[in-house]
Amino acid sequence: MDLQRNSVGLGQRPALLLVDLINGFTSARCPLGTDCPEVVDANRVLLDRFRSLGLPVFFTTVVYRAREQARVFRARINHLNLLTPGSEWVQVDPRLQPLPGEHLIEKQWASSFFATDLYKRLAEANVDSLMVTGLTTSGCVRATVVDGLQHDFPVVVPREAVGDRNPEAHRANLFDMHAKYADVLSLNETLKLLDAVELHLAGAENP
Question: Domain 14-205, what architecture?
Answer without folding.
Answer: 3-Layer(aba) Sandwich (3.40)
